[in-house]
From TrEMBL, chain A:
Record's keyword annotation contains Ribonucleoprotein: no
Keyword set includes Transferase: yes
Protein name: N-acetyltransferase domain-containing protein
A GO molecular-function annotation: N-acetyltransferase activity
Domain of life: Eukaryota
Lineage: Eukaryota, Metazoa, Chordata, Craniata, Vertebrata
Similarity comment text for this entry: Belongs to the acetyltransferase family.
Organism: Sphaeramia orbicularis (orbiculate cardinalfish)
UniProt KW keywords: Acyltransferase, Transferase
Pfam families: Acetyltransf_1 (PF00583)
């Protein structure tokens, strides 16, 4: 299947927001998604963006049944780039699009920005994702080295930020 | 003990580099440290810095046995959650052993959270080694949740070589 990979622009935020929600549905955590299209526009396309995005696009004749040919990978951060959200419609799986998105991220941050590591997180039950990433040559540093991922959020973070 | 938390300056990179190595030795991985103060100066103090850093400093009369007044640091950068939005990732938090127990670690952590809040960040994330009980307890006491244990999140990494291999297969523009 013919597809192209390109940098996301601000007009893509509507599609990105849609696909973030779809991915959250797959991960069974729809109620956790708090950001909107507007947040993505402000945070990804301002003077000092919080993230960068790469889009996979198919030609009009291959568009999804919902009528939109876009699917999205979001990568973020400038140092070690975290890229844990990749979502492809079922009909677009197996076409090399996921691999192409990952490769583009590696290229953009590697030769493009001089980064030496690509880090992200994946849910342990998400076997197809885990297998995909391991097949691309990455290491599970939680299993192999014992790193645990911790997060301070909501009230805990508010409390911590008190002087 | 009297101490001050302040943003790092370029001149602090030698001290930060020293303490990065001390932390790596503690974590039994000193051979993994590939950068020096020069990379820190380049990457932390350019136009689009890759990280920000806070320093803990003590007055001259309390300097360490080796003569250092810069006794702790917190190095962090901004990330993004597609669920929650702006986040901050704490890469390193370290206080020299002879200065622990004085609230310096808490001071650094709180300041990172405060800086993150000013930038409207809603999460503060970090990684900790499973055997590092004192660190795990320190963060848990401050309200951090262990998402590996509670939700099954695993940290995945591509190292430099695998990243380069992957990049070779990127589609041409």
């Amino acid at each position: 299947m013919d597809f192209s990979i390109r940098a996301a622009n601000v007009e893509d935020c509507k599609d990105i927001a849609r696909m973030i929600t779809e991915l959250a549905e797959y991960e069974k955590v729809t109620d956790q998604v708090k950001i909107t299209q507007r947040d993505l526009e402000q945070d990804g396309f301002s003077k000092n963006p919080f993230f960068h995005g790469i889009i996979a696009e198919v030609p009009e004749q291959h568009k999804s049944k919902e009528g939109d040919g876009k699917n999205t990978d979001s990568n973020r951060n400038k140092t070690t780039v975290a890229s844990d959200k990749k979502w492809l419609y079922l009909c677009f799986l197996g076409k090399g699009i996921g691999k192409a998105l990952m490769s583009k991220v590696a290229q953009v941050i590697g030769s493009g920005r001089g980064c030496h590591q690509l880090n992200f997180t994946v849910l342990d039950w998400n076997k197809s994702s885990v297998d995909f990433y391991l097949h691309q040559g990455c290491t599970d540093v939680t299993t192999d080295m014992g790193y645990h991922y911790m997060s301070c959020k909501g009230e805990a973070m508010e409390h911590l930020a008190q002087p | 003990m009297d101490f001050k938390i302040r943003p790092a300056r370029k001149e602090d990179c030698k001290d930060v580099s020293r303490m990065i190595m001390e932390l790596a030795v503690f974590e039994n991985m000193p051979d993994q440290v590939k950068i020096s103060h020069e990379e820190l100066e380049r990457d932390g103090f350019c136009q689009n810095p890759f990280f920000e850093c806070l320093i803990a400093e003590v007055p001259e009369e309390h300097k360490s046995k080796d003569g250092f007044t810069v006794v702790g640091y917190a190095l962090y950068f901004y990330t993004y959650s597609t669920w929650k939005g702006r986040s901050v990732y704490l890469e390193d938090l370290y206080v020299m052993p002879e200065f622990r127990g004085n609230g310096i670690g808490k001071g650094l952590l709180s300041k990172v959270a405060e800086v993150g809040k000013e930038k409207q960040c809603v999460r503060l994330n970090l990684s900790v080694l499973d055997w590092n009980t004192s660190a795990r307890e320190f963060y848990a006491a401050k309200g951090a949740q262990n998402l590996t244990e509670s939700e099954g999140w695993h940290s995945i990494r591509f190292d430099k070589l695998n990243m380069e291999n992957l990049a070779k297969e990127a589609p041409k523009d």
